[in-house]
């Protein structure tokens, strides 16, 4: 772990040299062990010795989610006897994909999460309350557990939901950090207020936020972050961006100004629609090449997540690049009445309307073949006047107003968390052709 921490502070030239050495090892490894990449290199006439610099990766075609879905087993580089754990993706944009982890892969996952705790200012004396699921082949909860063991902190595996159980655990054990989806913090606050719990003076002082962002590209709080901060100003929040495919994460430090890259775990590119690199200040799709993965390493995997990135050194002293908040997923981009949108922009507006208790965004193909948007809103106020107010909010922020339909709060809550889901679902895509 000490070497990983030191690498973060080295000059960019030394970080690049380290990554190029590991990249050469990776290419040799997959050419021998991966059916998918061996065939790809042969088909594209890729000469591995000529891929010497990070920029040379552009000669290798990208790997897509569809590749993983259609040829899942052809990415596995170890025999079944070498696999210690199986995890699956959440299947947000398609069928879930299975990943096979070796013992070393699990150590790498532990290192990634331990670094996240270190970045955020945690200490081994901290006790971390896990409020995301650790079952259902979900990597996030497992990463938290392995990371806490590596880091030396305590861990309480409460799991997702059940505010009463969360607060009862906080009262009994006094955890200092929680790993959570940030919108769940609002449910904890509401429960505390309704039940006379002095949450602002509880033991929790730090939240590591997964699945949603609380930050804007200017590093200030977005609407969700503002709502939490206004009610719980003592709570520090750090964004953690991760994916099952890269088997690691990007994590905010104590300066809270972007999620740091961990250059000993991945090589990262930011690509446009034609798979060309974008500059800092331009949105690009996060594309990762894994370093140190044995079971299912990936080369130039396009995550589908679009963001801005920052290359200048952080005020914390780390020199690794940083990610801004995820603007949206490539497959979730909406073209509505001449305006290009991502669901996050709609969420940000809805989170700022106090009477909206919960919501779902539905996108569909309308009768003229273009994208339509329907917002299902759960609220005690279901008047026509309130519908107009909601639409006016949208017009003032994004110039267009989607269809708004009221549904019972309880019904929307059930739709957001179907029995087979591991995550809260706020976006449903019913379009006939997403291309």
Quick description:
The protein is an alpha/beta fold and 435 residues long. It is 32% helix and 22% strand. The model has no long low-confidence stretch (mean pLDDT 91).
Shape descriptor? globular
Percent of residues in helices comes to: 25-40%
Termini separation: 42 Å
Low-pLDDT segments, ≥5 res = none
Largest sheet: 9 strands, mixed
Q: Calculate the mean pLDDT score and round it.
A: 91
Number of helices: 12
How many individual β-strands?
Answer: 21
Strand order of the largest sheet: 4-3-5-6-7-8-9-14-13
Secondary-structure content class: alpha/beta
Strand content: 15-25%
How large is the radius of gyration? 22 Å
Description:
This protein has helices at 2-8, 12-33, 35-43, 65-70, 103-119, 139-151, 163-173, 182-194, 223-231, 343-350, 384-398, 409-416; strands spanning 85-88, 98-101, 127-130, 154-157, 177-180, 206-209, 236-243, 248-252, 259-260, 266-271, 284-290, 301-307, 309-310, 322-323, 328-329, 334-336, 339-341, 358-365, 371-378, 403-406, 427-430. With 435 residues, the protein is α/β, with parallel strands linked by helices. It is built from twelve helices and 21 strands. The chain is globular. Helices cover 32% and strands 22% of the residues. Strand 8 and strand 9 (259-260) form a beta hairpin.
């Amino acid at each position: 772990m000490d070497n990983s921490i030191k690498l973060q502070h080295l000059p960019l030239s030394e970080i690049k040299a380290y990554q190029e050495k590991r990249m050469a090892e990776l290419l040799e490894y997959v050419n021998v062990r991966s059916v998918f990449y061996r065939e790809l290199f042969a088909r594209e006439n890729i000469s591995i010795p000529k891929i010497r610099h990070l920029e040379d990766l552009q000669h290798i075609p990208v790997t897509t989610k569809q590749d993983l879905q259609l040829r899942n087993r052809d990415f596995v580089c170890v025999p079944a006897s070498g696999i210690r754990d199986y995890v699956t993706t959440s299947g947000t944009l398609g069928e879930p994909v299975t990943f096979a982890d070796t013992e070393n892969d699990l150590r790498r996952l532990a290192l990634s999460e331990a670094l996240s705790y270190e970045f955020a200012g945690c200490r081994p004396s901290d006790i971390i309350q896990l409020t995301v699921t650790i079952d259902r082949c979900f990597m996030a909860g497992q990463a938290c557990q392995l990371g806490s063991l590596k880091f030396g902190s305590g861990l309480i595996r409460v799991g997702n939901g059940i505010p009463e159980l969360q607060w009862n655990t906080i009262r009994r054990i006094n955890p200092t950090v929680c790993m959570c989806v940030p919108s769940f913090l609002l449910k904890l606050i509401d429960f505390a207020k309704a039940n006379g719990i002095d949450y602002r003076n509880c033991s929790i002082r730090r939240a590591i936020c997964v699945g949603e962002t609380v930050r804007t590209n200017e590093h200030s709080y977005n609407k969700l972050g503002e709502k939490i901060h206004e009610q719980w100003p003592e709570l520090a929040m750090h964004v953690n961006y991760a994916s099952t495919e890269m088997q690691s994460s990007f994590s905010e430090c104590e300066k809270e100004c972007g999620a740091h890259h961990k250059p000993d775990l991945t090589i990262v590119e930011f690509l446009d629609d034609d798979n060309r690199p974008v500059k800092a200040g331009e949105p690009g799709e996060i594309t990762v090449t894994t370093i140190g993965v044995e079971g299912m390493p990936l080369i130039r995997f396009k995550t589908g997540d679009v963001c801005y990135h920052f290359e200048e050194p952080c005020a914390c002293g780390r020199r690794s690049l940083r990610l801004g908040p995820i603007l949206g997923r490539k497959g979730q981009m909406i073209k509505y009445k001449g305006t290009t949108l991502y669901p996050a922009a709609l969420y940000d507006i809805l989170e700022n309307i106090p009477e909206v208790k919960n919501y779902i965004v539905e996108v569909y193909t309308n009768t003229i073949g273009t994208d339509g948007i329907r917002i299902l809103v759960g609220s005690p106020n279901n008047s026509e006047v309130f519908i107009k107010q909601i639409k006016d909010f949208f017009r003032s922020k994004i110039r267009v107003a989607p269809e708004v339909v009221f549904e019972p709060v309880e019904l929307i809550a059930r739709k957001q968390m179907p029995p087979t889901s591991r995550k809260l679902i706020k976006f449903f895509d019913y379009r006939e052709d997403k291309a």
